Amino acid sequence: MDRLPRRSRPGGTNVAEGGDEGETHPVEPSRDATDTTTDGSIEGLATAWLEAERQAVAVGNANNTEERARQASAAYDAAVSGASSEELLLAWRAAEARAAEAEMGSKDWAEAREVAELLRVEYLAARS
């Protein structure tokens, strides 16, 4: 997986997702490569999806990681598609707060900023 897919939002707005490949995400409750547990929030689903993508890339899509990444992507997409712009704003702000808790410049901070940026773009797309 060299690039993450572009998805169309309702109304024809395209949203491009991106991510740092090959790193793990610190904000999930579980670090087990086979478990993508989230708290069910949009932010948690975004975190789980990006983590699953990184895991799949890190192992060359071995051990069913690509399928787990697809499932995480589908769960995230469903949550975002059904969310109001206010819910997306709250998710973006929660992701920013999580980044603010991490040491600036650290891996944890970079990964939290990645989630925040993804949710910022989703929020802006929902408003247009």
Give a written overview of the molecule:
The protein has 128 residues and is mainly alpha-helical. It has helices at 42-58, 65-81, 85-101, 107-127, and strands spanning 6-8, 14-16. Strands 1-2 form a two-stranded antiparallel sheet. A hairpin with a 5-residue loop joins strand 1 and strand 2 (14-16). 37% of the residues are buried.
Helices and strands, in N-to-C order?
Answer: EEHHHH
Query: What integer value in Å does the Rg equal?
Result: 14 Å
Share of residues in strands: under 5%
Mean pLDDT: 79
SSE arrangement:
Elements (H helix, E strand, L loop, with lengths): L5 E3 L5 E3 L25 H17 L6 H17 L3 H17 L5 H21 L1
Antiparallel strand pairs: 1-2
Q: What can be said about this structure in brief?
A:
The protein has 128 residues and is mostly helical.
Give a quick set of tags describing it.
2 strands; flat; mainly alpha; two-stranded antiparallel ribbon
